[in-house]
Design brief:
This protein is α+β, with helices and mostly antiparallel strands. It folds into 2 domains: 31-238 and 252-384, no CATH class; 389-532, no CATH class. Helix content is 58%, strand content 11%. It has 21 helices and 9 strands. It has helices at residues 2-6, 31-45, 55-64, 69-79, 85-97, 101-127, 130-142, 144-150, 156-175, 179-195, 199-212, 214-241, 247-251, 254-267, 276-296, 300-326, 340-351, 357-380, 389-399, 441-450, 514-519, and strands at 13-15, 20-22, 410-412, 434-440, 454-456, 462-473, 488-496, 499-513, 527-532. Strands 3, 4, 5, 6, 7, 8 and 9 form a 7-stranded mixed β-sheet that branches. It has a two-stranded antiparallel sheet with strand order 1-2. The longest helix is centred in the middle third of the chain and has 28 residues, at 214-241. The termini are far apart. The model is unreliable at 1-6, 10-22 and 403-433 (pLDDT under 50).
């Protein structure tokens, strides 16, 4: 026993009182990546169903997804302006898990989680430094806009993941050119193009860089040609889609959109509600870290890595900006989300450069903490979240005098003025007829999703209703709260985290036109009319 006690413990093991613990130096080298990926998973999955669907998300299950994949793809052509990859994934996901918030958002959440190790690989490939890998992955794991789109049932986070994969494959092919690496880059680039059309702006500087040197050009020509064919094959789809639903971009001043780009990166989609002071607080450690890193001067490998990330980020942002000024204006801040991966890598390369030492690490920690604080604030503050259409629908259903399951909607074609209702049934509560919901356009799909037996009323149609709900958000028109027609009286007001609804009821069904109801909208924005009870 005494001889055994005299033996030294294995290297890296510290002996405590009755137990032994591993020294940190024995931890596997990949533990920071595992910890950051776990953090990203917790942040994204824990609150995946907390917010209700907003318009674009609800539009997918209401109007795009069908039991048949072919019918779904046909809807993508006629109603969307995005490539088909995400919709194929969403269709398969819906067949297995359904169309609830968590189910439809899960592919985006998984893409967001997977982006963290890809970001790590990008950082490591750019400089060869472990610190750059850790910083890049940490910023992606907690960045507010990355988390936001990881919790949205749309294609944006898939775009982020595929763009990150393309960038990683590009840097690998750039450093050690081979036919295999070139084809891997082409495959990743094709997936990015099939995820979002704005991927072409990120791929452009990558392709130019790969083709610039004659030695790489010979290896890259065929894979790049195949990638170009994928882009060409998408042109008929782009033409058929014709920019569906992009009218709002032109109605948003270009200057405001340019200002929103850094705001999205710093404080996420609704971060403007926090004010410029909070944006500045988040920006300060980034500006300070970048300034300090540049002042300390980057090593040659770091300088090259920063230049690569800068070129890709510049292509992803500046090319759409130039096109917008030239008249091809599809510049929306959310369409640039893929460019935020090379931007994040650029920041990480400079902030934690080797000569910045512990000061650079401190700046990186401050950046990550600032990002995380905003992300957590979004989880706690309804004003920073998507509109609570689920809560509003619940309130409208609870307060309504009309039971949609027990009534039949009355509809009269506009071409038959004054015609009598064709069918009316009496609910158990004695009311007759149905109810109309006049909503801002962004509320139509969510309300159709959350309110059963609700459908869109075509322009010019006449409907007979006993209840009218007028839905919108501030700023309200001065006429808000005024009954929509003689015979209706106010029956209350609902306010669900800024979504406002005025309710009006009549003693008997009243015949109203869709045009007259739209004019009654409580906001100045475009409105639509829904009918409940179909």
């Amino acid at each position: 026993m005494s001889a055994g006690a005299a033996q030294s413990p294995p290297s890296g093991v510290r002996v405590g009182e009755g137990f032994a613990v591993l020294s940190p130096r024995t931890w596997p080298a990949w533990w920071p990546l595992a910890a950051l990926t776990l953090l990203a998973a917790v942040i994204r999955l824990a609150t995946l169903g907390e917010q209700s669907f907003w318009y674009d998300e609800a539009f997918t299950p209401v109007h795009v997804l069908h039991p048949s994949l072919w019918a779904t793809l046909r809807s993508v052509v006629h109603t969307e302006n995005t490539p088909p990859l995400w919709y194929v994934i969403a269709w398969a996901d819906a067949r297995v898990l359904g169309t609830g918030e968590v189910a439809l958002r899960l592919p985006s959440a998984l893409a967001g989680i997977a982006t963290v190790p890809v970001a790590w690989a990008i950082g490591r490939e750019l400089t060869g430094e472990r610190a750059t890998a850790i910083a890049t992955a940490a910023f992606v794991a907690v960045n507010p806009i990355m988390v936001w789109y990881s919790q949205e049932a749309r294609a944006y986070e898939l775009f982020v993941l595929t763009a990150a994969l393309a960038m990683w494959c590009f840097v690998r092919a750039l450093h050690e050119p081979s036919a295999r690496r070139m084809w891997t880059f082409a495959l990743a680039g094709a997936l990015a193009l099939l995820s979002h059309y704005f991927a072409v702006f990120l791929l452009t500087p990558m392709v130019v860089w790969l083709l610039w040197a004659p030695a790489r050009r010979r290896l890259a020509m065929l894979p790049v040609g195949a990638l170009a064919l994928v882009g060409v094959a998408l042109l008929p789809l782009i033409s058929a889609q014709g920019g569906h639903g992009t009218q709002w971009i032109g109605e948003w001043a270009l200057g405001s959109r340019l200002q929103a780009i850094p705001q999205y990166y710093l404080t996420d989609y609704y971060g403007s509600a926090l004010g410029h002071g909070i944006e500045l607080l988040v920006a300060l450690p980034i500006l300070g870290g970048v300034g300090y890193g540049l002042w300390r001067v980057l090593a040659p490998a770091e300088e090259r890595g920063a230049l690569i990330a800068l070129a890709v980020a510049a292509g992803g942002v500046l090319i759409p900006v130039v096109l917008a000024f030239a008249g091809a204006d599809y510049l929306a801040p959310r369409n640039l989300v893929g460019a935020m991966i090379p931007l994040t890598a650029l920041i990480a390369v400079i902030v934690v450069c080797r000569r910045a030492g512990r000061v650079g690490v401190a700046f990186a920690l401050l950046i990550a903490v600032a990002f995380l604080a905003i992300t957590l604030d979004v989880d706690l503050s309804p004003r920073l979240q998507r509109g609570d259409w689920r809560g509003l629908a619940r309130e409208l259903e609870r307060r309504s005098v009309f039971s949609p399951a027990s009534a039949t909607t009355t509809s009269v074609p506009a071409s038959a003025p004054g015609a009598a209702p064709t069918s009316t049934s009496a609910p158990a509560n004695g009311a007759t007829g149905s109810r109309a919901i006049v909503t801002v356009e962004l509320g139509s799909a969510p309300l159709e999703y959350y309110l059963p037996h609700t459908s869109y009323v075509p322009p010019g149609r006449k409907i007979a209703v006993r209840e009218v709900d007028e839905v919108g958000y501030a700023p309200l028109k001065a006429s808000a709260g005024t009954p929509p027609a003689p015979g209706f009286r106010p029956a209350g007001k609902v306010d669900v985290n800024g979504l406002i609804a005025y309710r009006f009821v009549a003693k008997a069904p009243q015949t109203l036109t869709e045009t007259a109801l739209r004019r009654q909208s409580i906001t100045a924005t475009r409105s639509e009319v829904l009918i409940a009870g179909v």
